[in-house]
Amino acid sequence: MTDADEPPTFGEGGLVFIVPEELAGSRADAGLSALSGSPRAQVRRWIEMGRVRAGGEQVRRPSRKLLLGDRIEANPPQAVPLELVAEPIPLDVIFEDGDLIVVNKPAGLVCHPAPGHWRGTLVNALLHHCQDLAGVGGAIRPGIVHRLDRGTSGVMVAAKNDSSHAGLSEQFQDHSIQRVYHGLARACPKADQGRIDRAIGRHVRDRKRMSVRTRSGRRAVTCWKVLERFDPPGASWLELKPETGRTHQLRVHLSSIGLPLLGDSVYGRAHRDRSRRLPKIDRPALHAAVLGFAHPRTGERMIFESGWPSDLEEAAGALREASR
Questions:
Q1: For the whole model, what pTM was predicted?
Q2: β-sheet bridge partners, residue 226
Q3: Is 149 a catalytic residue?
Q4: CB atoms < 10 A from the CB of 59, how many?
């Protein structure tokens, strides 16, 4: 058992706050984040682990309202010591200054170390490129404020100091980040655009997968629009704008309405692509094309774009040829 797995104990060594008037009525995650200076996402994890109490009772939901004068107790887990190795992995840097770095992540690159992927990740590359990144935002995910799935390519931002990490994390939490993805679906929708508002949670039988058919889902919203149709053989380029940030959200939502991504073996039944004469691609055909945010120090609005990678360009070219 690691320190992070130990049952919470409250008292000496923990965090204790009294809810002031200006935070009375606020959500527990937002209030404790303001009081402790910790990112809201981190506070939510404390709550999920049973490490937060208010008024002597365990806080079970991040949305629990705080009362004036409530005694808030938090017992954050101790960080597990982990030596991360800086590796000279090439980075496609779009922008960089003293506060942040924006990169174009290739498909196949894992964002941060995890069981089975302790080396060769984006974090290992960033540690080599940014000499003073270690410790920013956490021991295992230094600099990381959001992530793309291993198979997803496109634009990502990482923080180079704690202040930038907190500022960018807050923007992701309040959904003020501009995110636009492009995906190649293995079907053609009848409509030209739509909006998917379906909660996402763990699959009831397969805990490694996410699903809209779940007993404990969280609200998820995705807007989509057709950019190009290939019919026959029956495929389409889609513009995708997530209003929330759930795990595998775009892949799960598209599959739920009959528009699975080409090459998605988990949610799209990729083995059927060849039988329909669709181009073969070795990863979900999803690309983070646009990322916009306010610079955490200057407040300047910044927008970054990433062009389609070669595998998606080739797939689209093959589909255009087939649809003539």
A1: 0.74
A2: 238
A3: yes
A4: 25
